[in-house]
């Protein structure tokens, strides 16, 4: 193992330490990618995704199913209006900016539901090509990185409560990793609220993908429900209904939060100048405009409704 690889492995291991925050690990990953260069580029992307999904499943051991169901019943109307409105606005912006329909749809879905996971799920249904997928995921990744730093700072500046920030982050930030990362920086209560609210958004992958399957019948066999969602719900059920799991629940939940930190390092280290250049100006403008509208609307909602 050469020096670069050894340094990379050492840095990844260090990210398991509780002193390393989500934003710190992402910064380490970005710095490694742009300054040193990622010696495990293919493996880092794959394992970063695995660890992220595992961490989301582990977070289920800190979410009571009764609370999840109650939150779902209370927020189903709000969530429905939000998802459908963002999808409609995203498609309209894409059309006005002259972006091809599928790329515009992928950006809209990624913003409305859960970033890269939604893009991957819908992309498989719609048979998106690598260029379309890379542009949509690239711009979402960039905005997620910005959100990790901007949202906690804005939350403190505006004096948001833990509950307000958790709800805002879950509504306005694309990927689960960044929602968890930003809310974890804000506090444990914010993380708890954000995890529940985000899961309600993620579940929209299923009906949206099914609707697209109906519209594009030739792609029915390609649709797959993201298994980490199933795992999260299963973990929450075990935590809620199986008393024997209680002694293990807290360690698993804690381990999941730190695993998420490591996954952010791996994901951040996979960024490259070529991936930045792959994001077209029109696609970036669509994503930024849509994100700004969503963020401001969600902020006004949590502050005044």
Automatic annotation (TrEMBL):
InterPro entries, sorted: UPF0324_pro
Record-stated family: Belongs to the UPF0324 family.
Protein name listed in UniProt: Sulfate exporter family transporter
Membrane spanning stretches: 7-35, 47-69, 81-99, 105-126, 133-153, 199-217, 223-242, 279-304
Species this chain originates from: Spirosoma montaniterrae
Major place of residence: membrane
Alphabetical UniProt keywords: Cell membrane, Membrane, Transmembrane, Transmembrane helix
GO cellular component terms, semicolon-separated: plasma membrane
Subcellular location(s) per record: Cell membrane
Superkingdom field: Bacteria
UniProt signal peptide: none
Membrane topology category: Multi-pass membrane protein
Keyword presence, Mitochondrion: no
